[in-house]
TrEMBL record:
This is Diguanylate cyclase. Keywords: Coiled coil, Membrane, Transmembrane, Transmembrane helix. The chain holds residues 481 to 763 of 763 of the full protein. Residues 23-279 form the EAL domain.
Amino acid sequence: AQKQGKSSFVLYDASMQLELQSRMKMEARLLSALDHDEFKLVYQPQVDSSTGRISGFEALLRWENPELGQVAPDKFIQIAEDIRQIIPIGEWVLLTACRFLKKLHNSGYEGYKISVNISVIQLKQEGFVHTMADILQKVDLPAEFLEIEITESLFMESSERNELIAKLDQLRQLGIGIALDDFGTGYSSLDYLRELPITTLKMDKKFVDPIEQDEDSRSLASAILLIGHSLGLKIVAEGVETASQFHFLKTHGCDKIQGYLFSKPLGEAEVAGLLSKWDDGRA
Ligand code: C2E
Ligand code: CA
Ligand code: CA
Ligand code: CA
């Protein structure tokens, strides 16, 4: 028995070793990924549920490394945050997303908005508000077309929560929209809805998924819509995959829909292709 114990310890140790090695490898690759041009953005349409028209896009980051292949954001964002590399990466994301939108506007596709995911590490950074204002000015994009998406769980644990809220206020004053992402997951508290200067609520996929299945789930989804609307927020439902989910959400006043039912995240050329088919408002 002792022998077995020992060998399983060795195995465990070896797998820990491997994990550490792969983690360090990913950190090293992340540090050079920007210089090597390994990131790109894809854009997922958000559809106005009452008109059925695209109102904007969420920018989502993609990383392809020659050695690691395609790495999903869920696998690398956290690591990029841990090593603070999310700061330059996040700045690249903002600049690239704003330039993309400006290009659309310049091609006659006016009125579309862009939503960009922001890590709390970025928000905490000194001068973040200034960076945002600089980017908008450099790209010559009016602030009202930009929305940032933040997650709530990060505010809980932060000792700087008052400063963070003050920064969000400053961003609002610039005219930038603020969406609370993944609402209802993690450590959500309804109090955040009152406390944070947000303009949009993103209802997490976990509330959308079971809408077809049971009455309780439908009650919960419609209650979220009621609360959000009574606080003056716009609501975007995430991960909408079926027509009946869409029908329920639209009937209950959900403002916008995002999900595979309408479109997966698209590359820049695919967006142009989609708009040339769908946008009849082109100048
Ligand atoms: P998120 O912000 O909640 O993004 C939504 C995720 O759901 C995206 O995954 C999107 O591709 C996926 N999705 C959209 N519609 C559907 C659907 O109908 N069904 C299903 N099953 N999935 C759907 P993705 O692109 O893998 O991003 C994962 C997460 O990574 C994001 O979650 C966000 O938290 C983070 N992330 C992505 N890009 C960035 C970025 O530029 N900066 C930061 N800080 N985080 C990012
Ligand atoms: Ca998001
Ligand atoms: Ca989300
Ligand atoms: Ca998420």
